[in-house]
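Async update (no meeting this week)

Hi team, since we skipped the sync, here's where things stand on the single-chain job. The sequence we agreed to prioritize is pasted below, unchanged from the tracker. I ran it this morning and attached the output directly underneath so nobody has to dig for it. Comments welcome in thread, and please keep replies under the output.
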Amino acid sequence: MPIKNAATEKLAPELPLTAEQSQLVQQINDFAQKHFSDKQASVFVVEGEAGTGKSVVLTHLFNQWQIAARTEPKSLFYHSNNRFLVNHPEVLKVYRQLAGEQPHLLKKDFQRPTTMINQLEKQDDHLDLVVIDEAHLLLSKPDHYNNFYHENQLLEILKRSRVVVIVVDFRQVLRMKSLWTRERLEKLLAPYTTKFVKLRHQFRMQAPDELVSWLDDFSDGIINPLPQNARQGYDFRIFADAEAMRQQIIQRNQQVGLARVLSTSGYPSILDGGKHYIREGKFKMPWDQYNFTQTPWAEIPETIDEVGSIYTCQGFDLNYAGIIIGPIFYLDPKTNRLEVDLSKYTDTEAFKRRKDLTDLVEIEQLKHLMIRNALNVILKRGVLGTYIYAHDPKLRQKLINLFHEINPEVSRNEEKRP
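Output:
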């Protein structure tokens, strides 16, 4: 079976769903019909970590709603005013591409939340059925740079809607301006009729469950021995040399496409229009450039010569991901844990001050949590394979030793060879 590389092919409404996903679509539909005429908004929350199939559920659901709204006079949803919202410009491009390929979906159906809120406010209008993908990216404080002047995007949408369906992953919260925790979400939704459902099965990575669990623990700071079956049906490798890893990614890209190098923060990166490079020995590549095209970053052929950041790879599949764990992460030899060095964090936009946060200990904890979240997101991009290189020498050696424990037949120099 040929590999589907276009993001739209993986979200198309005509693709078959699993039994769990089909049941969830029906469950949401039943909820929407039951609460469509309620006096205030009702909310259906789908929680699931990266790769659990949340987005494909939403495209099937929204397509059904738009078919009913536009072609079925007997439906409760006929002539309903519905929108699909996502606060991620790269992901929005995919949905708008998808709309251009579907008879009942229009590009205008898909919007960023701020655009939609400001438009509804100006026209004194409302929405009926709303889907919000990547809801952990919704702003939870004013952001004048993005023309949002209210306190919370989700609250503003609820004020102007009948039924709202959101998908959220608290492990993908990356910025203070989009600070969401389960407690904060539950508090905001307390006045509304709400139902929570959790998706658990990992669809993206064709990796053993034990390896996915290892990556979760690793992001949290716990460095366990690698599972013996880590490479069973999955190309997982640890590299001693970043340039050797890049060469392997180039080969994989030539073979199957959609292979890219990604990195955590910790290297120079300034939004000044210039190129800023990541250097590791013989490895030298620039960070991803701002993408002015309508094509997602990972699908642009030239980005094989760039290093992707959390902001260009979040929400996307890659066939192979070469991960550089940057200077912000290091091995503490006393505790044998993966620790965070905040002094080396270079994404200053992530930690802008919030008026509702005054406890310095809590702020520090949240910063550490968001940095670990970003690592977890990046580590889960590779469908067919994940390659890892660590900047910190002690961490790098620790990972290499763990890798050789499950690959005793591999020579000590193999991962250095292109």
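Quick observations from my side:
The chain has a mean pLDDT of 90.
Residues 360-379 form the longest helix (20 residues).
Reply here if anything looks off.
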